[in-house]
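[job 0417] fold request received: Homing endonuclease LAGLIDADG domain-containing protein
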Amino acid sequence: MTPATFNEDDRFPSYTGAVNRFGSWTRAKELAGVGETQTVECKGCGERFAHIGKHWNNSSCRWPALSSTQLELLTGVLMGDGTLLRDGTNCCIGIEMANREYLEWLDQRLQPFSTGVKLKHSSSEQLERAKEAPLDPIRNSTVLKPSYLLLTRRSPQLNRFRGWYDTYQKRYPSNLSLTPAIFQQWYCGDGTLNIRAKAANPHATITCKNEQDRAEFITSLFQEVGFEPTHRNGRFVFDVEDTSELLEWAGRAPPGFEYKWADTYKAYTELKPP
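[job 0417] inference complete; emitting structure tokens
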């Protein structure tokens, strides 16, 4: 996976991870749905609740089911920059990044399971964090941008992802298969479009350091859907022809990540957020 502030300590138990990510256990639970100020309508009884998850847990109203599309979106998110909060009975998924436009798009598609998009660190907070610890060159260019957080509500359906962390490191299950929606979210998080001003065509790369010892498995995921990446030290690189077909197969780019679908350097620079 590419370096990301949200999932650097996936090897730690969930309590420690939550505190490190959100500042406190209380804050983590608040962002996961405890202490919500907005109300959400329960489709079962028609009433509105500030703590809809508690209502679903403690009433005769059933938990609504995540749609197959929502589960695919969350699978792709978790393959990339997302993380699973797995304390308690039911899990939730969170993702932190600077790309607020994308998170708001994702928030709409995950309703009523998303708790919204919230500011995690302001630009000034990011500056203070940069002063406290040295950062690798990849993050230096974006460290001063504010970061935003999206957390889902807890759901029994998300417990299916617990097994991804059995070794305290995120590992994809052997029965995983790629779909356009899954790949699209994974590429938004861990993908790169390699494109230069003088290059004729771009090529895409997926960085997957957490699975670099299972390169054959990752390669097989793409082979099953007709693509043939080359593995290079945790990076899965697609040639120009595969890149064009892969991005077409993935579908229209989500808002905020259109630049990763660009077909020219000019389009890439114009679409990439500042």
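[job 0417] notes: The first strand starts at residue 40 and ends at 41. The chain has two domains: 14-35+65-165, 180-271.
[job 0417] exit 0
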